[in-house]
Amino acid sequence: GLLTRLQTSAPTIGTPSSLKSFSQNIPSCLWKLGRLNHVAIAVPDLQKAQALYKDVLGAQVSDTVPLPEHGVYTVFVELGNTKLELLHPLGEKSPIASFLQKNKTGGMHHICIEVDDIKAAMTELKKKKIRILSEEPRIGAHGKPVIFLHPKDCHGVLVELEQA
């Protein structure tokens, strides 16, 4: 009957061989990526950005924290499964100031992904010719070691890795 014809004519769905070979070619690492910690957004007006997320969207928003060693003011917006980090320039040499000169209304600055072993990640990434923007990890906004990977080596995205 009809059911037999449907069962015999229905295509079988499998994993393409290209995906199987891809996953088999991934070497095991001495470190692992963890969860997305935050997405950082450079903002020209920190108070307006805080008000948007707190008063308009109803999010829990932290106080402003200056991080002079990074040249930024930070504010974290809690989203439940991750955070947004609002960045505003602090000082003349702030990397956010130069970003905002090119992007007057602000925009996404970087993503931050947790890793279980930042030193092992650095060693392996250097071997794989991924440029790291500092010789050693620095302490980030969460009080944990962080490094940044060069955006030209990460398909145009500035990637921050943070020790979990």
UniProtKB/TrEMBL annotation:
Domain VOC: 35-164
EC code: 5.1.99.1
Keywords noted in UniProt: Cobalt, Isomerase, Metal-binding
CDD domains (alphabetical): MMCE
One cellular component (GO) term of this entry: mitochondrion
Pfam families hit by this protein: Glyoxalase_4
Molecular function via GO: metal ion binding; methylmalonyl-CoA epimerase activity
Swiss-Prot/TrEMBL catalytic activity: (R)-methylmalonyl-CoA = (S)-methylmalonyl-CoA
GO biological process, any: L-methylmalonyl-CoA metabolic process
UniProt cross-references to SUPFAM superfamilies, sorted A to Z: Glyoxalase/Bleomycin resistance protein/Dihydroxybiphenyl dioxygenase
PANTHER family noted in UniProt: METHYLMALONYL-COA EPIMERASE (PTHR43048), METHYLMALONYL-COA EPIMERASE, MITOCHONDRIAL (PTHR43048:SF3)
Family of this protein: Belongs to the methylmalonyl-CoA epimerase family.
Function recorded in the entry: Methylmalonyl-CoA epimerase involved in propionyl-CoA metabolism.
NCBIfam families according to UniProt: metmalonyl_epim (TIGR03081)
Protein known as: Methylmalonyl-CoA epimerase, mitochondrial
Species of the source: Climacteris rufus
